[in-house]
Every structure is written in C-alpha cells, then in structure tokens.
Amino acid sequence: MVIKITREQIIVAMLFLIVLAIRLFLSFQTPGFDYDSYYALRQAEHISQTGLPLFKDLLSYSGRTFIAPPFFYYLLAGFSFIMPLELAAKLIPSIIWAALVIIIYLIVKYLTKNRTAAFISSLFSGFVPVLFTTLNQASVYSLSLFLIFLLSYAFLRIEEKGFTTMSIVVTIILLLTHASVFILLISFFVYFIILALEKQEISKKEAEIALFLFFLSLWFYVLLYKKAFFLHGISFIWQNIPSPLLSSYFQDISFFGVIYAVGIIPLLLGVYAIYITSFKTRNRAAMVYISFALISFIMLWLKLVPFQIGLLLLSLNLAILSGVVIKTSLVALSKTKISRFTWIITGALVILFIITVIPSFLVKPNTSIPPPEDVKALEWVRNNTEENAVILGKVQEGFLINYVADRKNVADSNFLLIKEINQRYDDINSLFTLRLKSEALRLLNKYDVGYVFLSSKSMQEYNLTQLFYAEKSCFDLVYDKGAKVYEFLGCDVEQ
Amino acid sequence: MKKLITSKKQAEHQNLPDRKAGLLLIALMIICVFLSLTLILRAYHGKPIFPTGESYYNMRMANSLVYNGVTTQDPLQETYYAPSPYHFFLSFFLFVFNSYSVLWFIPIFLGLASALLFFRLLTIMGAHKEQAFYALLILAVTPVFIVVFTGLYLLGWLIFLSLLSFALLTSKRKMPRMVGMLCFIILALSSLVGFIIASMVFLMMLILMKRKLNALIAPAIASLAAVIIMRLLLRQLPMLEGFGAFDFKETLSLLGANIGFDLFLLLIFFIGFVVLWSRSKSTRLIHLSTLLLVMLSFFNSIARAFASFIIAYYCVVTLTYLYNRKWSLDIIKTGTMLLVLCSLVFSLVNQVNLIVTAQPDALFVKSLMFLDTLEPGRVLTDESYGLLVEFYSDNNVLLDGNSIQFTKDYARRKDDSQTLFNSARLIEAQPLLEEYEIRYVLITPGMKEQLWDNNERGLWFLVKNSESFEKRYLEEGIEIREYKPATPVMPAG
Q: Which of A24, A149, B221, B363 has the fewest CB atoms lying closer than 10 Å?
C-alpha cells in the first residue's frame, strides 16, 4: 500500500515542525523548568520507579495525600524509559503544544472548507504570544488543551462514522488527564441554548453525546475528589489556594492584557467572526467555538480558571474563529477585480500578524525558573542533611525542595486537602520577614523545621540578605553561595 | 378475535389493583431495608442508633414532658421552648412503653407511612403506578429522606403530617377531610414554616388536580387561628425555622450538608424540568412553582425536605424520558442510563456512610455516662456535641445545636467559646470560664483535629498543663477536665 502524502499535509507538517523547532530552541535556552513543573517530574519519576502515581507523599507538606488524574505523568514516565526524564519533560509538552496547530487546522478546515483560512488560523494558533509563556512548563495543560480541542473536533463531526467512539475515547483520556474537560462540556450546553434561542434544531447525537460525557465526567470527578469536596466545600473550585495567592493566580482580566496575550490580529478577526456568525452566517460549527470562547472569557472574568489557561483557551478559540473571517474575506476578494492579489493580501495579513506578535516575544518573560544557585544549594542540602529533615522554603519552592533536595517541605503549590492553608501560608511568609526571634522559634518548632532555605529569589522578593532572627545560638549558616541554608539547632521559645 | 382482546384487556384491568399493591409493597420493602440498614449498621459498629443532632434533643424533651409535664422553658438549658406536638407524640410512646428503644422504630414507621402517602398522592394526581413506584425508589435514595427518617427529626414529622393532610383533605368523604384539617392544625402548631410551605405545595396540587381551593382555605384559616391562639396563650412570637444564608455546604450533601440535595439528583431534576416544561404549556405554572420551591429550598431546610419529594417525581420523568427516547446509539443510551443509576447508588451510599460514621460512638457515650456520675455543672465542648452532652449527662452546656435558635446572646457566646478554645493561658480563659460558670471541659479527638490540628495548642494545652483543671476522665483521646480555680492564698502576716 502506498501512502500518498499531499501538499496540504506537507504544509501542515512543516508548520508543526517550525512551531516545534522554535519552541524547543527557546525552551533549551534555559536549563530547568518553572517551579510547578517539579511536581510533574516527581510524579513521573515515582511512576517510572513503582508503576504507580505518588498518592501518599511523605515529602510534600511533610506528609500528605495527592489526588490528581495521572495520565500525563504516565506519559512522561513512559518516555523516561527511552530518554532522560528531564529531556522528556521538555520535549513531550512542546510536541503536544505544537501539535495543536494540526488540530486547529483540521477544525478550521471543517468549519470553513477553505485550506488557506485553515492554514492561517493554525499559524495564528501556533504563534499566539500566550502559548510561549508555557515554554519551560512540564504542564498537564499541554495535553489537556490538546485533548479538549481534539474532543471539540470529534464533536463537530459526531454525525460521521467513528467520531462517537473517538469522542468517548478522548474524553476518557481527558478525564484521566485533567478536570478542564468541564469547560468544554459547559460550552456544549451554551451552544445548545444558543441553537434553541435561534430556533435551530439541536442534533440528537450531539445532545446525547454531550449528556453522556457530562454525566461521565461529573461522576468520575465526584468520586475522585469527594474528600476534597467535603473538606473545602465550594472553594474546591479555587483549589484551596491561600487568599493572598489567589489574586495572583486568578488575575483580573484587562483589555490590554488580552491584546498582549492573544495578539491584536486574531483578537480583531475573532471578535468580528463572532459578529458575522451570530448575525449573518449562523454557522452551526462556528457556534461551538463562540460558546467555547464565551465560556472561557466568563470563567476568566469570574476567576474560575487560572489566568494563563483562560487566556490560552480564549486565544485558541479566537484563532479558530478568525478562520471564518479570513474565509469570508477571501471569498469576497475573489469576486472583485483584485482577486489575483489574494495571495499578496494573505501574505500581508500573515506578516502583519508576525509584526504585531514580535514585541510580545521580545519582552523578557516574567520567568519563574529557579536560578542555578538555588538549585545548587538544594543539591547541597540533598547531600549534606538528614533524610528526614524538613526544609523551609517559599511556598513556590516547595516542589523544587522535594525534587532536587529530596527532603520534606513545609508547603508547596498543591493546596488541595490541606487544612488551615491561609494560616500556614502566612506563617511561612512571616518566617522570612520576622524580626522577633521568639515568634520565629515558635513557628519553626510548630512545623518541625530543620533547615531554612533562603533562596536568591526569596532574598530578592523579601529584600533581605539574611534572616533577621538567625542568631548563632539557635542557627548555623551551613551554606552560603548565592543562596543560604540555615540549620535550625532546635531552640525552644524559653531558650 | 376482537372478543378475545377485550377479555384480555378486562383481565388486565382486573389485575391492576393487585399490580399496584405489588409495586407498592416492593417499594416499601426496599425503603424499609434502606432505612433499617442504616440504623443496623450503626448498631453493628457499636454506636447508639441515632446519629448526633436533633434526635437527642427531641428525646430529652419528650422525656421531660413525661416526667415534668408541659413547660415553656427548656428545663436543662433554661431557654425558650414552645411545646411541640411532635414531642407530645414521642412522649406518648415513652409513657406507654417506658423505654427509649421504642423510639428507634418511630422514624422508620414515619418514613414508610410518608412513602405510602406519597405513592397515593402521586396516583391521585394522575401519575402512572409504575411512575409512582419509581418515584418511591428514587425517594428512598435521596439524602433528605434517608436523614430525616433515620433519626427523630421534626422534619420527618412535618413531612408525614403534610402528606397525611394532603391525602385526607383531597378525600371526597367528610370524615377524612375533618381528620385532615386536624392534621393541618397540628402541622401548623409544630412548625409555622412547615405549614406555610405545605400550604403552598397543597395549593399547587389542587391547581394541578383542577380541584376547588376550598380544600385548602378552611384548614389554612383554622390552622392560623390555632397558631395565633396558641401563641397568645404562651405569649411567644412564632419562630421561622430552617432559614439560613445560601451556602453550598448547607445545600449539597456531597459537601457535607445534613439536610441537602444530592448533586446528581438535582441535575436529573433539571433535565426532568426541561422535559416537562417543553411538553405542555398548560402545566408550566406548576413547573415554575416547583422551580421556585427548589430555589427557596436553597435558603430553607424545611423547603429542601419538601422539594426532595417533588424532585423524586421529576427524576422519574427524566429517567422515563431517557429510557423511552430513541437514541442514535445504543451504547450511549446504555452508558448514560448506567451512569444515572450509578449516581443514584452513589447518593444512597454516600448518605448512609455519613450517618453510619457520625458520632456518637460507644467510647464517647461512655465518657458522657461518666460525666453523668459527676456533680452537675456546665460543660464547655464543641457546639455539635451539646445536645449529646445534655441527653446523656443531664448537664447544661455553653452552646448546643439549638442555641442559634433559642439563645438570645448566641453570637456573643459563640465568640467567647472560640476565644476559650484558643486560650492557652489561664489569664485569658479565666474571666470567661467564670462568667459562664463553666465547670467541665470535654475535649474529643475530633475537636483536637478540627480546632487544634492535633497540636497541643489553645485550650487543649491549657487544660493539660494548668493546675486549675483537674483530670476526671481520659480514655482514647476523650478528656474531661474539671475547672477548679485555685483559691488565692493570703500572704502570711
């Protein structure tokens, strides 16, 4: 059997390879990962060693239970057998992010039946600035967003043979990956409402599959997170994030923020696509992505999704919708006298897009990658401290302490199932800024801290060069090369 | 041939009552198994039959009625008390059988009777017998039904009385209608909010059945008159029970609500609502009223209990719709039906598990029995244990589950109890201990975990390290300390 490779496939494959190459080039410029990725690395490492995800962790919060769908970590662990884990953690998410351009190409092609529009939209989706904030993240969102758009594609073609099975399989993988499937499922119901309002007939198969997937997802997550629901109540939605952190995690949405993250061209074209679809063409398939964009925007606005993920969803949806406008424009152009300049106009649009997104790439991103001196300090901790020692670091550094130093932390960025998280978060912050020794000793004893890790980042953030209360009678500065490590000698408040 | 078909139909028609009775019997048996299984599981784990909460208050007040007669004050807590017909009902059994054991059967009896009446009302209102049967099965797994009929809850009594009143008041004969009116009056005297909600539901029923509203007006006027007379005699204002600010934790059983909805049942209800809404324009007013009741139930626990019954019917509509609908793919149909059934099972198991694991256990009861042997004195413990302490040890507590309703300075007491729990120094705790005349401090493992995160902090640290607290009981983490302020020593000379 000879497989015929079409020019279209070659072009899409090239686009995929270009996006991947750029991502990998930029990603390998910086060694290491952002702070939260070390959780994924630990999970994958544990799976590759034991075959099971890390459920009862003795290091995080000095002992806690993790609840998370493990598919992404299994994927990383699987690849860690053929390459080093850290390489897999750089490579696999980048491949998945880049593969989004293929899915978006297929979606837009189905929506517009126009290859040029599909290609331009997928180009937009490959280079939206917000996507490049994920460069050093071994994030579960890479896979979950890919699967979400794949599921939406299967949903579009649900009437065709094989797509029902595909949507069920994708949903099951998605359920085992991340809970973000609900954003799409809610969008489906909004889509049905819009259809009902427009007095269009709701496809029987679409309604059935949406209902089934909704019940399946709800049932799965209720069973999985029952304990967390019970413990945190409705604040479970915000993942029990401490109040002071919540504002930075779920930021307020601003108009310029959206332009910066999405790019002005996809934003304008996407918004115009919403207008022409809603009031003129009434394209059913485009309605799915209008609903999806609407729900992404509302969730972002109501701070129900992390800022970065909300923007990613919004920008990818707008990139898809911009395909509708591009197609309409191309059709309109072909009917005019300047139809032979279509390619020039298309090229100009692409160049304009590139020009508008370039400033976003030139601005140095607000990196959250641990500096090498901090990593070295933690490597020293790994080799020179007792195995059971509890290391106090910033909450953000918790996973890094677990992964690099292989020691217990006081807190990290996974707050689910942790009681009195606000108190703990405040205590940790005050341990870096306190001047009163007695209070510091009380808190250090409370969390059974053995060592205080004063990273170069913490020094920068708290504007200090040493701990104020670290007197020689109770503390020993055991490491001082950029970052500092203090050994707490176990004094009591009375001493 | 035609004759044969007619005779077959006639035979089927003659068999209808038998089939109806058969379905009803099966449903009642299932309900009986679910309810009694919950209580049996508690007994199997060596726990008292009733989970912590209102049951113990109702038993204590019923007992008080038997031995002290009618009162307008809680004899132990010395707070406001309006004589409740429910307490008279319970005290009757206590008086006749002279044992608390007889009360174990009351909730199951009320549950079965309520289910029976619900079945009857559904069939009266035109529901098909199979639909009524399935409604009972769904009702049997609703969290509210399981909770209120596995304990001595006023809510269970209100539901039973309401359903009984509806069934009797819709009768065509005069005598049952008179009895129905009496039930309605008793309902109003038991709970004003319960009466108002029951009246609203009854009004909806009458509209749906296209009956005259006279069936409601006369009993409602008589009931209101009875309430006014009763309140004038007692010189007390009626209380509006069950209201609270909207809180998911109080509304969804998944989040730990005691009287809450199951999330899945709520979703299935909404599908049923959409189905019924789109089916007929003439009944939309009724469905809108149902929706309003469900919305009200997010703010009131009594409305929640009533809504649970109505939701059960809508769930049947959903299930029937999903089952009878022509699906594009059989696998999706099977999958969806399986998921819905699994969610119903989940609802049941989740609620039964909550009840079975609830306090008190044998160890806690043992400590309370010990407390009963000590000299009387006010006890400081977690608010949720208050009613248990009162029942088992006959001691007054600073706060109990009813304080929010009956104690005038509840907010202040609540703040003070928090201050006490957080006090690690006697100098902070002493003024409050003396102001409230606290004699005993009862600390349980649950409190140690919830209040102090299992670290010896706050009051736990204080009672353990201060000489002013004498250890009276310590077993399996349950501690009873007696507060004995040190007598100041006069300086020599």
A: B221
Choice among A394-408, B128-142, B444-458 with the minimum mean pLDDT: B444-458
* Strand partners for B441: B380, B481
Tokens of A470: 């670290």
What would the mean pLDDT of A158-165 be, rounded to a whole number?
90
| Residue type for position B392 | Y
pLDDT, average across residues B429-455: 89
Q: Which of A209, A222, A230 sits opposite B263 (nearest CB)?
A: A222
> What six digits make up the tokens of A304?
């129900």
pLDDT in tens, A122-149: 999 999 888 888 888 898 999 999 999 9
pLDDT computed for residue A253 by the predictor = 67
Residue of B nearest to A196 (CA): B278
Q: What is the pTM of this model?
A: 0.84
What would the 3-class secondary structure string for chain B be? Answer: CHHHHHHHHHHHHHHHHHHHHHHHHHHHHHHHHHHHHHHHHHHHCCCCCCCCCHHHHHHHHHHHHHHHCCCCECCCCCCECCCCHHHHHHHHHHHHHCCHHHHHHHHHHHHHHHHHHHHHHHHHCCCCHHHHHHHHHHHHHCHHHHHHCCCCCHHHHHHHHHHHHHHHHCCCCHHHHHHHHHHHHHHHHHCHHHHHHHHHHHHHHHHHCCCCCHHHHHHHHHHHHHHHHHHHHHCCCCCCCCECCCCHHHHEHHHCCCCCECHHHHHHHHHHHHHHHHHCCCCHHHHHHHHHHHHHHCCEHHHHHHHHHHHHHHHHHHHHHHHHCCCCCHHHHHHHHHHHHHHHHHHHHHHHHHHHHCCCCHHHHHHHHHHHHCCCCEEECCHHHHHHHHHHHCCCECCCCCHHHHCCCHHHHHHHHHHHHHCCCHHHHHHHHHHCCEEEEEECHHHHHHHHCCCCCHHHHHHHHCCCEEEEEEECCEEEEEECCCCCCCCCC
What whole-number percentage of chain B has pLDDT above 90? 60
Q: Domain residues of chain B, as ranges?
A: 20-356, 362-483
List the structure tokens of B140.
């049997």
pLDDT at A100: 94
A61 chain-B contacts, CB cut-off 8 A = none
Contact B455 A212 (CB under 8 A): no
Q: DSSP string covering A121-190, please?
A: HHHHHHH-GGGGGGTT---HHHHHHHHHHHHHHHHHTTTSTTHHHHHHHHHHHHHTT-TTHHHHHHHHHH
- Confirm whether the ipTM is greater than 0.90: no
Q: Which of B271, B328, B346 sits opposite A205 (nearest CB)?
A: B328
Task: Determine whether domain B362-483 maps to CATH 3.40.50.12610.
Answer: yes
Per-residue 3-state assignment (H helix, E strand, C coil) for B311-328: HHHHHHHHHHHHHHCCCC
Interface residue ranges in chain B relative to chain A, Cβ cutoff 8 Å: 248-249, 254-256, 263-264, 267, 271, 327-329, 332-333, 335-336, 339-340, 342-343, 346, 350, 453, 455
Predicted confidence band at B493 (pLDDT cuts at 50, 70, 90)?
A: very low
For testing contact with chain B, the best of A61, A216, A230, A417 (most B CBs within 10 A): A230
- In this complex, do B339 and A233 lie within 8 Å of one another by their Cβ atoms? no
Cross-chain Cβ contact A233/B248 below 8 Å: yes
Q: What is the DSSP letter of A420?
A: T
Summarize the confidence of residues A263-275 as an average pLDDT.
Answer: 90
**Res B449: pLDDT:** 85
Q: How confident is the model at residue B17 (pLDDT cuts 50, 70, 90)?
A: low
Cβ atoms A272, A325 nearer than 8 A: yes
B332: nearest CB among A209, A219, A230:
A209
A230–B333: do the CB atoms touch at under 8 Å?
Answer: no
